[in-house]
Specification:
The chain is α/β, with parallel strands linked by helices and about 325 residues long. It contains twelve helices and ten strands. It has one domain: TIM Barrel (Alpha-Beta Barrel). Bound molecules: 2,6-dihydroxybenzoic acid (GRE) and zinc ion.
Length: about 325
């Protein structure tokens, strides 16, 4: 398929590059490091080769979310956002941008989002899971009360918010001790992000701001497969595990979430996701540079879905969601 758009596509700056080391052997890391810094060279060549018109770019992980000092987090976020906006200005036909945000301070985050959308022309935000705040061991999740005014700004600006994975802190990773191979994108990323998404769905946030759209990657971080059970678990037991939100969890999943194919190039998973949320809420992405553009594109272009759905997932859903102009 020609003219695909991807929206989980990363870059890095000097201040954040080392956050992506450690997930890969040294020789692969050398390649990845180059890919993260590169925007206009190999990246564009591969996009051309594999029918990708556009990448909606975002900073690597966990980056800003792992800078406990709010002032410093704000400084690095602004630096990354200014750099990204400058790069997008060179090729607005091929690149658009998601803002990095200092969630250590909800007010600063709201102001930076306003600046990125209104002054820099960004089309949304991408945040890497929980944030470390004040010290490295104190963390916040985005359903917590201090973030509700921030979500008001997201709703008012009407821009999508990508909830991207990060690893749980070592202190919260006992389950992975002795089985460290499960950390990162293999399993821990998805688990962490799925629970964070469920927290948002159950919090009542989407009752207050019904137009907010959260985007999650990796074909929904396991949630499409598990969504029925979340709402129907032990259906014969009344009044248990109550949450503040008004509706069934699946209602929010189907109304307030979009899902990308990043790093999960598997047709059965995509078909399941189509059955749960519909083809209008699924969007092509690669997860470059951590996954390969050719793996994503060759799989997607040949996947057994209708051409109508391929066009939606590959392109038109993204144009609509991010209000991309011609
Ligand atoms: C990602 O951001 O998507 C990512 C990492 C590290 C390893 C793999 C991966 O940050 O997909
Ligand atoms: Zn990613």
């Amino acid at each position: 398929m020609k003219n695909k758009i991807g929206l989980e596509e990363h870059f890095a700056i000097e201040d954040t590059i080392n956050d992506s080391a450690g997930f890969f052997p040294d020789d692969i890391w050398q390649e990845l490091r180059g890919r993260l810094f590169d925007l206009h060279d190999k990246r564009l060549r591969l996009m051309d080769q594999h029918g990708m018109e556009m990448m909606i770019l975002s900073l690597n992980a966990p980056a800003i979310q792992a800078i406990p000092d709010a002032k410093r987090a704000n400084e690095i976020a602004r630096k990354a956002n200014d750099y990204l906006a400058e790069q997008v200005r060179k090729r607005p036909d091929r690149f658009q941008a998601l803002a990095a945000l200092p969630m250590q301070d909800a007010d600063l985050a709201a102001r930076e989002l306003q600046r990125c959308v209104k002054d820099l022309g960004m089309v949304g935000a991408l945040v890497n899971g929980f944030s470390q705040v004040g010290d490295a061991d104190t963390i916040t999740y985005l359903d917590e009360q201090q973030y509700w005014p921030f979500w008001g700004t997201v709703a008012e600006l009407d821009v999508p918010f990508y909830l991207h994975p990060r690893n749980p802190l070592p202190a919260h990773s006992r389950i992975y001790k002795g089985a460290e191979w499960l950390l990162g994108p293999i399993w821990a990323f998805g688990h962490e992000t799925a629970v964070h998404s469920l927290r948002l769905m159950g919090s009542g946030l989407f009752d207050k701001y019904p137009n907010i759209q959260i985007v999650i990657g990796h074909m929904g971080e396991g949630l499409p497969f598990s969504m029925w059970r979340v709402d129907n678990c032990n259906a014969w037991v009344p009044n248990r595990n109550k949450y503040p939100a008004k509706k069934k969890i699946a209602d929010y999943f189907q109304s307030n979430f979009h899902i990308t194919t990043s790093g999960n190039f598997h047709t059965p998973a995509m078909l399941n996701t189509m059955l749960v949320v519909g083809a209008d809420r699924i969007l092509f992405s690669t997860d470059w540079p951590f996954e390969n553009i050719d793996h994503a594109a060759i799989w997607f272009d040949g996947s057994t879905i209708s051409e109508e759905d391929r066009l939606k997932i590959g392109r038109t859903n993204a144009r609509k969601l991010f209000k991309l102009k011609d």
